[in-house]
Amino acid sequence: MPTYESDVCIIGGGLCSAMLAEKLSDLRPGLAITVVEAGSSLFDFGNRLKYRQRVLDYGESAWPGDVLEDQAGAEGFCLTMAVGGQALRWGSAANRFSEEDLRLKSMYGLAVDWPLSWAEMEKAYCEAERRLNVCGEPSPFPGDKRSEPYPQPPMPLSYNLQTLRTWAEKSGIPFTIKPQAKNHVSPTPDLDHPGGGCRMGTDPATSVCDSYGRTHDHENLFVVGAPTTPTPGCTNGALAFVALTLRSADRIAAEFARHT
Ligand SMILES: Cc1cc2nc3c(=O)[nH]c(=O)nc-3n(C[C@H](O)[C@H](O)[C@H](O)COP(=O)(O)OP(=O)(O)OC[C@H]3O[C@@H](n4cnc5c(N)ncnc54)[C@H](O)[C@@H]3O)c2cc1C
Questions:
Q1: What is the value of pTM for the model shown?
Q2: Ranges in the chain, pLDDT < 50
Q3: CATH for 8-134+179-259, among 3.40.50.300, 2.40.128.100, 3.50.50.60, 1.10.1040.10?
């Protein structure tokens, strides 16, 4: 069995793993990082455009082999494990969870509050949006206030959406273009945004890790991204998961500074 000497070992090769590895390399160049992915690599860049065309022509998957054909539910599909994780299929919607989402306990007496301030989360969102090159427009909703503009202007609206926008605005209904991390034609409308499982918190009796993902009972073990969210948000979560991951990268890199 081959042996890989590493400073950091990341289990799972999805979006958050990629962002963690990239940022740790930026912060600590020369760090030996190993990513362990249980699934196979489906990337075939040489034929990428051919597969894109088959998505448009036949509604096939852009990454052949990324679903378990005989495991699909009635109206869905079952992803296999592979490098890229769920991001192989994601729709690129890069919405933020709102400040309210982080304060369910203090605002509504529900579940728990997240163990980090909105200011910290907002800063991490801005970085996640920069790294994912999110496009979007200023939102008319006060809850969407942001400290930095989107890195890219919004996606152009189709004719139908332009018409819808005109009607909505005539009726006094605020309309805003969905922030997105890339151009995308989704082969199916199905979405999936699992989170939680190793939730963050300050009390080891009710949480697995702190707000940086460091596990309470093992100082060298970090859980990053989606599993750490204590409650779900009002929208798609990948941007929040990446933002949390980038905060974890800051903390992990700082640990290397402390020990070297
Ligand atoms: C069809 C679809 C559309 C989506 N659209 C959007 C969207 O528009 N906007 C949005 O915000 N979110 C969207 N999502 C959700 C988004 O893609 C995920 O939240 C995000 O990609 C999660 O990234 P992750 O790195 O945290 O986890 P994952 O992508 O789940 O990556 C985890 C990786 O770990 C591997 N792994 C698991 N266990 C092990 C193990 N024991 N050892 C080694 N490897 C292991 C898995 O194979 C996987 O590659 C969508 C999801 C789906 C399925």
A1: 0.84
A2: 184-191
A3: 3.50.50.60
